Amino acid sequence: QVQLVESGGGSVQAGGSLRLSCVSSGTLFGLNVMAWYRQAPGKQRELVATITRGGTSTTYADSVKGRFTISRDNSKDTGYLQMNNLKFEDTAVYYCKIGKNYWGRGTQVTVSS
């Protein structure tokens, strides 16, 4: 059974930075694409960024391009989302996902303007 645990969320002022982490149990982490999603109150969950198994290719939502960086360390079964120049509209619960359907429980990010 795979478990994903996100951490690193918190409250920050606009323009600030946070680094989210996603630690995976089990042996599937390095075999799967990893993604970060977010869900703001009253909105659908949206894809923020993805990274391939080897970390050589990434994709980003237009809303975070140039501000967020996704990365991973397969030796530690851990993925990251570096978030810089945060905006009020980045406020959401952030989830990591590996493979087709392994999800963490999320970490709250709150940005005050």
What does this entry look like structurally?
The chain has strands at residues 4-7, 10-13, 18-24, 34-39, 46-51, 58-60, 68-73, 78-83, 92-98, 102-103, 107-112. With 113 residues, the chain is mainly β. The strands form two sheets. Strands 2, 4, 5, 6, 9, 10 and 11 form a seven-stranded mixed β-sheet that branches. Strands 1-3-8-7 form a four-stranded antiparallel β-sheet, with no helix packed on it. Strand 7 and strand 8 form a beta hairpin. The N and C termini lie far apart (40 Å). The mean pLDDT is 96.
Rg, rounded, reads: 13 Å
Please tally the helical runs, counting DSSP H or I stretches of 4 or more residues: 0
Number of strands: 11
What is the percent of helical residues? Answer: under 10%
Q: What is the ordering of alpha helices and beta strands?
A: EEEEEEEEEEE
Oligomer: single chain
Largest sheet: 7 strands, mixed
Cα-to-Cα separation, first versus last residue:
40 Å
Structural class: mainly beta
Content of β-strand: over 45%
Name the overall outline: globular
Mean pLDDT rating: 96
Unreliable residue runs: none
